[in-house]
Amino acid sequence: MNRTKLYSAVAAGLLVSTGYSAQSQAQSCVLEVAKGATIVGATNEDFLVIEQGCQIRAEGTAEQPINFTADKAVTGEVENNERGLWGGLVINGFAPINDCPEGVAGGTAECTKEGEANSGLFGGDDPADNSGILKYVVVSYAGSNVDPENQLNGIAFQGVGSGTEVDYVQVHNNLDDGIEFFGGTVSASHVVLTGNADDSLDWTDGWQGSIQYLYMEQKDSGDNLIEADNREGDENAEPRSLPDITNMSAYGLGGENGLRFRRGTGIHLTNSFVVDSGTCLRIGGESRNLLGTDLTIGGTSFGCAETHRDDDDGAVEAYLDTAEEVSQTGGQVNPVTPSGDFESAPFIGAFGGDDWTAGWTVAGSVSNGGGDLPSTGCPAGTTEGGDINGTPSCILPQSITSDLTLSSGNFYVLDGKVVVGGDNADSATLTVNAGVTIVGDDAEDFLVISRGSQIVANGTANAPITLTGLADVDGTGVSDATRGLWGGLVINGNAPINDCPEGAVGGTDECTKEGEANSGLFGGSDASDSSGSLKYVVVKYAGSNVDPENQLNGIAFQGVGSGTMVDYVQVHNNLDDGIEFFGGTVSAKHLVLTGNADDSLDWTDGWQGNIQYLVINQAADSADNGIEADNREGDENAMPRSAPMIANMSIVGNPGERGVRFRRGTGIRMYNTYITDNATCIDVDGDTSNGLLGTEILFDGVSFNCPEVVDGDNPELQSYLDSLGNVSQTGGSVMPVDLAGMGDFETVDFIGAADPANDWTAGWAFGDIDLGSPDFPAEPAGCPDGITEGDDINGTPSCLLPQSIIADMQLTMGNYYVLDGKVTVGGDNTDSATLTIDAGVTIVGDDAEDFLVISRGSRIVANGTATAPVTLTGLADVDGSGVAPVTRGLWGGLVINGNAPINDCPEGAQGGTVECTKEGEANSGLFGGADAADSSGSLNYVVVKYAGSNVDPENQLNGIAFQGVGSGTMVDFIQVHNNLDDGIEFFGGTVDAKHVVLSGNADDSLDWTDGWQGRLQYVHIVQADDSADNGIEADNREGDENAEPRSNPTIANMSIMGNSGERGIRLRRGTGADLYNVMVSGNATCIDVDGDTSIGLIGMDINIESASFGCPEVVDGDNADLQIYLDGAVNVTQDGSIPTAATLPSDGFFESSDVVGSDFDSWKGSWVFGL
């Protein structure tokens, strides 16, 4: 493909065109025009044609547009009203047209036409044809009238296809039309047509493209703003001209037509206005028959001396009378939804407050850049006020009991408390159009939306809705410390709250409350209640402190329901809190809270919504907490409890204040958050809230960066934070949490409110906003101290773990950590150490002798996350060798030894005492003791794969062996996959676990012995098809079946998906077990209770409630006692049907569940392997 490049740096930036210049199809060329280039012509015979099959690639920028102009313009000799100094630009394409040679059907390859002024052939059957790109291109002082039928427009798009990109294009002072489309399918946006002598925009021959953001201004000469045909001589020719145009601003000339649609053209016109023309609209010929079908108008205001012309039968007027949001008198209208595929731009006209013409168009050519529909007075129901700084104002009534729309062009003034609707009576909707500003002048001016009414305030990024003080707009001025110029915005809803009149129950219709500062009743039982929508809304300089108990926040959401949409909202410089939620269920995204004098964000009264993407910049001159949050003062356990989720928050704090303060019984789940620059980062205040740590107060993916992290002396909070693997107390890096399945959160890969590459505050939010994006220090290169560097594994560095670790060690991301033989952490209750494993770390072994042992008195802290689990696996799994579905035994496994009671003792020792200890299998260390609450650390989001070793029948390595491990050890979200022996085995101890996945293990999936007395909830077992024994095999003690302490765990919410040749559950050798909400299916037999001792425990220490058994044989063998028990057990089915779930023990461990089985789909997440 031949390419001609025009560079602004060559020949002073000029390319001089002399005569007709064409890029021909035969050359199959691309004409590339560099940004900032200028192409000039000297006579009306100088014009540029891009032939079919060729392209022009003219991509300028706002700072360096590409200019096609006359030489007089370059030399500075051009007059303001000059036109026709050169020809113009013609682009020919292969897209469909409808003006064909005789006998040829429109839209076919044979349907072609010769362009005017001998400008080349165009037309064809390729609607997606690509003739290149015009972006930031200005065509000025062109045009030629060879004769009435041969004219050159500024730009003629002749059969140009939709693959062509046209954006930010101006035609100024053309002698004929500005732009004309001759058929084709090309679309355009950001089009400026100024000062053109004939029609500003013209189309014919079946054009079916679209335009969004069209500005037209006639100057000293012009005909129609738009003159449009389908086809002269055959008005119903196909394809019919049928463009979509939205967001048009059209300023005409008196005595001329605004829009002239004729000769069978259709159009869908929306969100536009036409002013100043002699006649706004003229529809003739076959086009009149398309009214309401292929010719539609909506969201459009016509403000001309005469609205329509040549409408003798009244059809046009009648259509406009019924059209959606059309004014024939230049009145304010609301935007409608366009029919085409457009950007969301819910405003009237081309701008919405954003002057996108600035900087690149011909200087002085655009008189109304950024302009809205000119004001035609105040909406019905409001009162005209005086101008404010040159803009008309309308005074809002203090009671609004019918729907009211505030359209652009005026300021709207609050005079005292303005209330929309009565309390669930006389309900009304206040619609606030994009770009509107509402003002108040003192602390008594505030806006209240009553229960049952709505506010629909949907601004745009280019035209936010603003509520502010009068001094901000009247020229008086404001300062960085200005606050309290007016009251604020209050929205009341019918959603649940927990602060009720005496005798009422929280969350019911009777539980209501009067808002502060006499702002109305709120509360109810409708969690999904809708109070409307706030989108791209900025509240500035508000707030009122009537007294310590009566304050007005920037926005108070009082009992507001989840049906309310809140997105892209800012509160700036409020005198009290920025936003406060008083109960309710409303959620929000993209919140900006800056410069507020009290707390930036506050909640109380049982708020249960969510926030994602929250920026808080605390004021330097006056601020309290970034967040202050309560459940309820005076009744800290009131229900419904405040328990929001907040993800992707950044707090840039005040160095004298706290970041977040949670008190009075509130819960909070906080993810992907960065808090910096406060004196202290976090305070959890009071016994009630401290009691929720780890249950209803949760942190994951949080980095605290303050001189003191914890406010005051709070050992419970400090201990909880210390236990979290994905929380940094030094401002260090943390892993983003996978938010999938958490409400309507979006999953992101960054910490803080915004990805620095995508500043969602830009353009609409006020002030210099610090996004608070953390600049985490890079992880140190190389291996941690005490570890030897190994060879790279598949391109990743490796570190060889020492076989004895007797000092604390942390394994950080970026390396593989290699087991070389048995690696032991600590001595037996001596030289104790903690092995900390960061989220996302992988530990590998290469043979069955490579295994990891945590000794008594030492700890493992392996806290992965749902998106970055800690993994222990075989070398072949990571080095590229590969594994198979049946791979097992690549390395040994994980052994944890503790000091908790066991029952298999040396001769003469008593079970559960310090003397009762035992050596673990495969020489894995001593375990057992008398400390039931012993802690061996934590496993959280840990996956163990391809492990296991069968040294001999009595010496085996399980995936994880918990040997005498105590209840102080935290185990949650763990998986053992494809182990050569058992998946998990508990050898005595008291440790509990939740969210356990056991898949593909070759022996028993779950095993226990030696007096284990822990608890499990949410266990999901998938037995291997190729090799498996029991789903569960469980003993008390071999050789002494009544040894104490007796194995007697409690298990709830378990699913076993079995091997068709094996048992589901086998209880033997004196074990007890309490099983609730259990489902067993796919095994040959579901359950076996084996031996007289265990059979004797049925109904006493062996209890089953709410179980679904779905196996060919439920009971293994001839066990009449077990069969009789099952036949009489509560909610036990033996046909695979699902019974009613059991009520679980209220012991602080078990979560309430109405599911029989593991409920796996609700918690499995992406961390689980292979399922």
UniProtKB/TrEMBL annotation:
Compositional bias ranges of the Polar residues kind: 1045-1055
InterPro entries listed in its UniProt record: PbH1 (IPR006626), Pectin_lyase_fold/virulence (IPR011050)
Recorded superkingdom: Bacteria
Segment forming the signal sequence: 1-22
Entries under SUPFAM superfamilies matching the protein: Pectin lyase-like (SSF51126)
UniProt-annotated stretches for the region Disordered: 1027-1055
Basic and acidic residues bias locations: 1034-1044
Keywords: Signal
PANTHER family, per database record: LIPL48, SECRETED PROTEIN
Name of the protein in question: Uncharacterized protein
Organism of provenance: Halioglobus japonicus
